């Protein structure tokens, strides 16, 4: 039997993927980023993975890709209003994790000791 994914789950996977989270976080400052700038910011992401992530987020309506008709090609990425909403929740979660990290670490140590 094949289990089908509901649309919400697929979107959740795109937004919360390893690179999806980092792309949304990088773009959350409101500035336009070129591909090479994002690649430097997310230094562990391969060019292929970053391209796939950006395309997925663009398809889902979170990222806007602006192509400027110049030579060499100039492309910039920004968040759409939908992307800004998603990014704000991810940034809030990141702040919560940072604030509660010591407590989580203590819980992990207690668990590992038992």
TrEMBL record:
<dbReference type="GO" id="GO:0003677">
    <property type="term" value="F:DNA binding"/>
</dbReference>
<dbReference type="InterPro" id="IPR036388">
    <property type="entry name" value="WH-like_DNA-bd_sf"/>
</dbReference>
<feature type="domain" description="HTH hxlR-type">
    <location>
        <begin position="6"/>
        <end position="105"/>
    </location>
</feature>
<protein>
    <submittedName>
        <fullName>DNA-binding transcriptional regulator, HxlR family</fullName>
    </submittedName>
</protein>
<dbReference type="Pfam" id="PF01638">
    <property type="entry name" value="HxlR"/>
</dbReference>
<keyword id="KW-0805">Transcription regulation</keyword>
<dbReference type="InterPro" id="IPR002577">
    <property type="entry name" value="HTH_HxlR"/>
</dbReference>
<keyword id="KW-0238">DNA-binding</keyword>
<dbReference type="InterPro" id="IPR036390">
    <property type="entry name" value="WH_DNA-bd_sf"/>
</dbReference>
<keyword id="KW-0804">Transcription</keyword>
């Amino acid at each position: 039997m094949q289990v089908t994914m509901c649309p919400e789950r697929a979107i959740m996977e795109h937004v919360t993927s390893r690179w999806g989270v980092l792309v949304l976080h990088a773009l959350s400052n409101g500035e336009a980023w070129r591909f090479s700038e994002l690649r430097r910011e997310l230094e562990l992401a391969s060019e292929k993975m970053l391209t796939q992530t950006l395309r997925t987020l663009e398809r889902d309506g979170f990222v806007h890709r602006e192509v400027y008709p110049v030579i060499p090609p100039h492309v910039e990425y920004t968040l759409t209003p939908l992307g800004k909403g998603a990014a704000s929740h991810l940034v809030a979660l990141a702040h919560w994790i940072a604030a509660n990290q010591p407590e989580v670490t203590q819980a992990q140590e207690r668990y590992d000791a038992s």
